[in-house]
Amino acid sequence: MRIVIGEDLFLLREGLVRLLTAHGFEVVAAVASAPELLRALVEERPDVGIVDVRLPPTFTDEDLRFRQLARRRQPAVHAVVFFMLDVSGSMSDRDRKLAKTFFFWVVQGLRREYRSMETLFVAHTTEAWEFNEPDFFQVSGTGGTVASSGLAKVREIIDARYNPGRCNIYLFYASDGDNSVSDAADARGGLTAIAADAWSGIAKQELTLISQRT
To answer: Which of 74, 132, 192, 209 is 20 to 30 A from residue 186's alpha carbon, by CA?
Structure first.
């Protein structure tokens, strides 16, 4: 992960650099003023910026104007959001309603950050399928739960349709928490494969997995 630091206090700035570097992060710039920070954001295109909210040259509302400018200068990125739902026999109507509410608020939050966002819906039992949104919340299944089947379907869709270097990929999963004991290793491997896709390409991407236990 590439990081830019904006902090005018020398000891604090250098302390942050040493701390982050010691934990394996790459600090690509550490600056002491707002103009330097803006230049670093534009030139370095970091994954994360750690910024003193009262960075010089002033302690006025110039700080707010600067932060708005810095944010505008960052390119808009397309988001691809996967919603994965366990629809096995153990999932009740209450579970599905909780999942729908959870997914709804996720979308509202992400739409504030992206002008371009695509949502995809995957349901699974021991097998997995892609659905449109209306059918996604109506589908129900029987039998057991194999989470890796859903993760494999997500990976299949990414490979077929998306360049992970050009979009931010999010995965949100709702389940009652049950999964076949024999599937633990495959599920872990499936998630690792998606993470590898999401972090490959010309720009590091974000993979957010939130497992909602209903």
So the answer is: 132
